[in-house]
């Protein structure tokens, strides 16, 4: 498991500011902290599917200011 912290919208949280990094989304094995210290190996597929889909939807909705 990776160590990127994400919120419920799959936005990556900055370790310095503790705020979402604009336009950066993650899901699956690169993230950590979603399941806490106890994580079953069988959850990996569901984690990838749920947060991958959430990341895709959030990224689609994100509009970068010009």
Keyword list:
66 residues; alpha+beta; 1 helix
Your description of this structure?
The protein has 66 residues and is an alpha+beta fold. The chain has a two-stranded antiparallel ribbon. It is flat, with a radius of gyration of 12 Å. 15% of the residues are buried. It is built from one helix and two strands; from the N terminus they run ββα. 29% of the residues lie in helices and 14% in strands.
List strands and helices in order, with pairings:
Blueprint: E1 11-13, E2 20-25, H1 43-61
* Main sheet summary: 2 strands, antiparallel
**Number of DSSP helices?**
1
**Strand order across the largest sheet:** 1-2
The H/E string reads EEH
Instruction: Kindly name the structural category.
Output: alpha+beta
Based on CA atoms alone, the radius of gyration comes out at 12 Å
Provide the residue-averaged pLDDT: 82
Point out poorly predicted stretches: none
Estimate percent helicity.
Answer: 25-40%
Described by the principal axes of the CA atoms, the overall outline is flat
Question: Can I get a quick summary?
Answer:
The chain has 66 residues and is α+β, with helices and mostly antiparallel strands. It has one helix at residues 43-61; strands at residues 11-13, 20-25. Helix content is 29%, strand content 14%.
